[in-house]
Amino acid sequence: MNAGQRIELALSNALDTPEAAATPPLLNRAMHHAVFPGGARVRPRLTLATAFACGKPESDLALAAGAAIELLHCASLVHDDMPCFDNADTRRGRASVHKLFGEPLALLAGDGLIVLAFDIIARAAARPGQGQKGAAVLSIVAQAVGSIHGIVAGQAWECEPAVDVAHYHRAKTGALFAGATAAGAAAVGAEPGRWRGLGSKLGEAYQVADDLADALGDAAEIGKPCQQDVANGRPNAVRELGVEGAVARLKGLTEEAIAAIPDCQGRDELEAIIRGQAKRLVPAQIAAQEFRVA
Fold this sequence. Notes:
The chain is mainly alpha-helical. 69% of the residues lie in helices and 1% in strands. The chain has a single domain (3-289), classed as Farnesyl Diphosphate Synthase. A hairpin with a 2-residue loop joins strand 1 and strand 2. The longest helix is centred in the last third of the chain and has 24 residues, at 193-216.
């Protein structure tokens, strides 16, 4: 199986264990709706690509870490769409979880995915031969979603009266990308610190691209409502830097992410992923005119 197939199978196995049959049916459906069908699965792909670049392409712990990170990402989207935050009716071109199942089940579905993510890592870490790698992965992923520098902090910065946009981007998006690359390295016994820079810069680039899509995109194109940052008073790179400044920032972060790739056997593949994803995420008119893939 290729990386994409391995990720989808791992996510399916996580949500469809024999024990899951005891889950309240509507909650079970809400959690599945949050995860399937997914987006590009870039974060778990980065986790597996990092493990491959470190010389261990078939690590079960790396796959578990990648699947867990994707579940945490999906949980963050469920909560982000809720009325208390963005109040978005659509996600990935269809009804958001709270719109389809109601706010209480959306809240619980996000919570359930968070708990499931850490259970996946714990189960993989308990297998023979993992040693301290499992504990390292667990800590890395927890920090990536935590209240100091992780997703929780990023969401909370939206509630502050003033925030530096770059700092906000590093927490809301960069942290989970940095966790994805660092966890991929730690899962195979490599030094995770060497890989954080790549993930962090790529995550910031993703958030700038998302800001451009929110400001300039079309809801039918990106699969979710646009102009949400203005409507909700959220930090946004376009509001702070203008369109040209945000595009320049995106280009700069993309090049910084590529420069941060350590010397490894999969460097060319990682560079191609980064350039391709940077172009894919921005509105079509920006991608065509300003963001050409080398």
